[in-house]
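Most newcomers find our protein records easier to grasp once they have seen one. To make this concrete, we reproduce a full record directly below:

===
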Amino acid sequence: MTRKTALEPREREFVLEDERDPLRTLRGRVSMPAGDARALPWVLVLHGFKGFMDWGFYPELARALVASGLAVVRFNFSGSGHGPRPLECTEARAFFENTPSRELEDVERVRAWLDSGAVPPIDPCRGALLGHSLGGAVALIHAARRADYRALVGWASCATFRRFAPEVEKLWRRQGFVEIPNLRTKEVHRLGLGWLEDLERNAPALDVTAACARLTTPTLFLHGGEDEAVPLREGEALLRAFAPGVAHLEVVPHASHTFEAAHPLARVPAALESVLRTTCAFFSQTI
C-alpha cells in the first residue's frame, strides 16, 4: 500500500480556461501542508508524454513533498488528452494538436497564475520545478527562460523532444499523424504533424541542451540505470551541457523509466522510495 503522512495534504483544484480555444483548458491541483498558513515554498510538477498528474507516483510524490513542508502544484498539460475526467484520456483532438511549444505555454500560464497571488499561502518567489521524462525537458527550457526558480529536479529527463526514428518521421509526414500506443489502456492515440513541424520551425527555442548551458539553477537529475524509454546517456548529455558544479546526476541502479512504479500504485517500490527521499532532501537544501 502507499504511505500515508500523519496529516493528509490540504488540496484545492483549479481550472484555467482559454477563451480563444477550449482545447487549451488547464486543470490542476494544489496540495499544501494541513493547517499551515505560512508563505510556503512550492514545487511545480510536470508530467511526461502520455502521462497525467495523477499517474502512478505523482500522488505519492505530492504527499512526500508536502510532508517536508512544501506546497505542490501539478496539472495536466492541455494536450495530454485528459479533460474533465482526469484519469481518462478523452480529449483526442487536444492530444492530436499538442506540440512542445504548447506545453511550454501551458507552464507559463500556470506560473503566471501563481505569480498573481491566486494561492495566498504560496510565496511566488520561492518556487522549484520537477519534471519527469519529457516533462523534464519542458522544465529545463522553462527554467532557462525564467531564471528565477530556486531549484530543479529532473526524473529520467529527456535531452531532446525528437523521440522518433527517421523512418517513423517519414511515415508521419506522409499520413499527417503518428500513432501512439497506450500500453496501459491498449488505446492508440494519434499525434498530428504539428508536433514535428514545431520542432523544425522552433529548433533553437526547443534545444534542451542549449537551455541547460544557460541555466544557473541548482539542478539534480535522477535516472534509472535500466531506463528503457530514455537511455541513461541522455541524462549524461544533460549533465555535460551545464556549467561545472551547477547540476548533478545520480543513477538509480537497475531502475526503470518510472523507478519501478506502475499505475495504479499499489505499493512504493524501493527505487521510487530512494528517489523520493533524495528529491525531498535536495529541495530542503535549495529552496
Remarks:
- The radius of gyration is 18 Å.
- The CA atoms of residues 113 and 286 lie 23 Å apart.
